[in-house]
Write a structure and sequence with these properties.
- The complex is a heterodimer.
- Chain A contains 7 helices and 7 strands, in the order αβαβαββααααβββ.
- Chain A is an alpha/beta fold.
- Chain A has 2 domains: 155 residues, Roll (Diaminopimelate Epimerase, Chain A, domain 1), CATH 3.10.310.50; 31 residues.
- A 6-stranded mixed sheet of chain A has the order 1-2-3-4-7-6, sandwiched between helices.
- In chain A, a hairpin with a 2-residue loop joins strand 6 and strand 7.
- Chain A starts with a helix and ends with a strand.
- In chain A, 27% of the residues are buried.
- Among the domains of chain B are: 41 residues, no CATH class; 148 residues, no CATH class.
- In chain B, strands 4, 5, 6, 7, 8, 9, 10, 11, 12, 13, 14, 15 and 16 form a 13-stranded mixed sheet that branches. In chain B, strands 1-2-3 form a 3-stranded antiparallel sheet.
- The radius of gyration of chain B is 30 Å and the shape is flat.
- Chain B has 6 helices and 16 strands.
- The chains are: A alpha/beta, B alpha+beta.
- At the A-B interface, helix 7 and strand 5 of A face strand 3, helix 1, strand 10, strand 11 and helix 4 of B.
- Strand 5 of chain A pairs antiparallel with strand 11 of chain B, so a sheet runs across the interface.
Chain lengths: 251, 365
């Protein structure tokens, strides 16, 4: 009897484990990530899901089917993941054919992400997307979603801020050492006579600022740069009775 | 008969007058200019094209016969330094090399100091400053810290200076630009406006000292400036009592060059500060004429201390009036970087603890 029970429990655990493994978080249709990068992002998103129950999906495509970024993202998210089984989450969709990035959110994701400051998302992903550091952008996005729900640990914060603290320390140390060097009073030439200028003795009898000519240069503004940094506010919609919120921009 | 050619302020090519637009046109860069502007530019450039004129009048009236009787000059047989003291003083050592072999000679036609600043810092204070230096300065090489730093020689010295008074008459021309940008449809339009800036005027200098002793390193003598010339009193040989004095062995004409360099630097800077509101300013022409230039010889008080380390002599100089100290000992580079890194490490440590504490308190997320 015990053996049968053990087998049943083992089978149940295997099923749950297999189910968990089947929950994909990265859908790189555009093929911009390599295998290791996909695995790392999967692990990062799985940890977030296990820790908070919040489901993050990263999707890239080169064919947005002529839909706008909002509609494509809502349709994709609704079709890719069952809303009743996974009600809370967000999908970050990158459309390379239109150079759009868009975040579709549902459930708690709408209040957590969609209603945030409109440029918030752009600050997290836009620079790295523009610089073709796609893995970096997606990793930062998952970390950003996690940070909104789980406070960073002391070690994580140290890793993040220590480079700046070290640079500040070196600058302060250099200033301190330079002050010590000045205090050595080592003999050096004086190149000016400022200490011997008679106070208020500067007497200007000619002050003339003559306009000569002007040069004009015109630089064409790149079409994509006009929308750089734009978060585009947010919008909402519904698919199959599920409410979605979205925000995005160009890269 | 000379001819006058108007040149383009932008590229320097000749300008021609366009009868239709009533403007001067440049055939090279295509810029056009108002004829009155070009006339004003020519006027400024001609006025500013004078060479620098820096001439000084010397107040060198020499000793009176009576003073010559009361004063003695000495030439050090070891290093050649020229020294003088009052008649009754017997010099026992050269102020510069410390050699006792000084040979008294009769005083001749020497430069007579007009004024002298008496010592305000006593010998004991000067010695204390020397000792404190090694206790308070953090970048002193270990060589100086391993054993007590003995004063090898301490000398109460009146050093000769030439004092220069003048008015600098300056004419400065600068090229300046202002930049503005605006968007016009699909274009960003950047407009750079070019200006010719002219400043002319005077700036007065008073009692600028230049070291008149060949033996005293100019770096040392300039580092202990300034002296308060207002405290100077009229020179009489009796003021040298108990001190050594170095005769001015660099004449005023030679010292003028140093005074001119310093006057020019400060004049340039003072006039440049009157130009503001431009994105860029470049000096095009600078002409300085020294007016009412007067130089006069004086004696200023300096404590000279020497200390020996590994057969090398290092000099400390203390302003005998203000107590300003300078020296020629080296600074330790290893201590410089050591201090820098230790402070950096301390800041990083405190910063790290602060970050960790703030995250634990929930302030930093």
């Amino acid at each position: 009897m015990k053996k049968i029970l053990l087998v049943v429990v083992s089978l149940l655990l295997l099923t749950v484990s297999a189910g968990a493994q089947a929950l994909l978080h990265v859908d790189d249709k555009a093929g911009v990530l390599n295998y290791e990068e996909v695995q790392k992002l999967e692990q990062q998103a799985s940890e977030l899901f296990e820790q908070t129950g919040f489901d993050v999906i990263i999707h890239t495509t080169r064919n947005s089917q002529g839909k706008g970024p909002r509609d494509y993202s809502f349709d994709y998210y609704h079709g890719f993941r069952d809303a009743s089984a996974y009600p809370n989450g967000a999908a970050l969709v990158i459309m390379f054919d239109t150079r759009d990035y868009y975040e579709a959110a549902r459930g708690s994701g709408i209040t957590l992400l969609t209603y945030r400051e409109s440029h918030d998302l752009g600050r997290v992903v836009q620079n790295k997307l523009s610089n073709q550091d796609y893995y970096g952008a997606f990793s930062d996005y998952i970390r950003y979603v996690k940070r909104l729900q789980v406070p960073a640990s002391g070690v994580e914060l140290l890793t993040e801020y220590m480079p700046y603290v070290l640079i500040a320390g070196l600058v302060i140390g250099l200033v301190y050492a330079l002050v010590l060097k000045i205090r050595m009073n080592i003999a050096k030439f004086r190149y000016d006579a400022d200490a011997y200028v008679v106070p208020n003795s500067l007497n200007l009898h000619t002050v003339q600022d003559l306009y000569l000519y002007q040069t004009v240069t015109r630089t064409k503004i790149e079409s994509s740069s006009g929308s750089k940094g734009s978060g585009g506010g947010f919008s909402t919609g519904s698919r199959g009775g599920t409410s979605y919120g979205g925000r995005g921009g160009k890269f | 008969m000379s001819t006058l050619t108007y040149k383009c302020p932008s590229c320097g090519a000749p300008l021609s007058y366009d009868g239709k637009s009533l403007e001067m046109t440049c055939g090279s860069c295509g810029n056009t200019f108002d004829p009155e502007t070009i006339a004003a530019v020519n006027q400024i450039e001609q006025a500013d094209s004078r060479p620098d004129i820096m001439n000084w009048d010397m107040h060198d009236r020499g000793f009176t016969e009576a003073e010559k009787q009361e004063t003695r000059a000495y030439s050090c047989s070891s290093c050649g330094a020229q020294l003088f003291t009052e008649e009754t003083t017997v010099a026992t050592a050269c102020a510069f090399c410390g050699s006792p072999s000084v040979i008294p000679t009769q005083f001749t036609d020497e430069t007579r100091p007009e004024k002298i600043i008496p010592f305000k810092i006593e010998k004991a204070q000067a010695e204390a400053m020397f000792r404190d230096y090694f206790k308070t300065r953090k970048l002193v090489p270990n060589l100086f810290l391993k054993s007590r730093n003995q004063i090898d020689e301490i000398r109460k010295l009146y050093a000769p200076y030439w004092l220069f008074d003048c008015k600098a008459d300056a004419r400065m021309t600068y090229r300046g630009t202002t930049v503005s940008s605006h968007r016009s449809g699909q274009y960003m339009v950047r407009t750079t406006r070019h200006y010719l800036i002219h400043r002319a005027g005077t700036l007065a200098f008073q009692q600028l000292p230049v070291d008149a002793s060949e033996r005293l390193d100019n770096k040392i003598s300039e580092s202990i400036e300034p002296f308060r010339a207002a405290d100077a009193i009229a020179f009489i040989p009796q003021t040298l009592s108990g001190a050594q004095a170095n005769r001015a062995d660099v004449d005023a004409q030679t010292c003028e060059q140093r005074a001119n360099e310093r006057v020019r630097k400060s004049t340039d800077a003072a006039f440049r500060r009157t130009v503001s509101g431009y994105a860029t300013v470049v000096t095009q022409n600078s002409s300085i004429k020294v007016m009412d230039g007067v130089s006069s010889p004086v004696l200023y008080p300096i404590w000279l201390i020497t200390t020996k380390k590994q057969d090398k002599t290092y000099t400390f100089a203390i302003n005998g009036q203000t107590g300003a100290l300078t020296c020629d000992i080296p600074w330790s580079k290893s201590k410089f970087f050591g201090r820098m890194l230790s402070v950096a490490g301390m800041v990083a440590g405190i910063g790290g603890i602060a970050i960790y504490a703030l995250s634990a308190l929930g302030v930093l997320k």
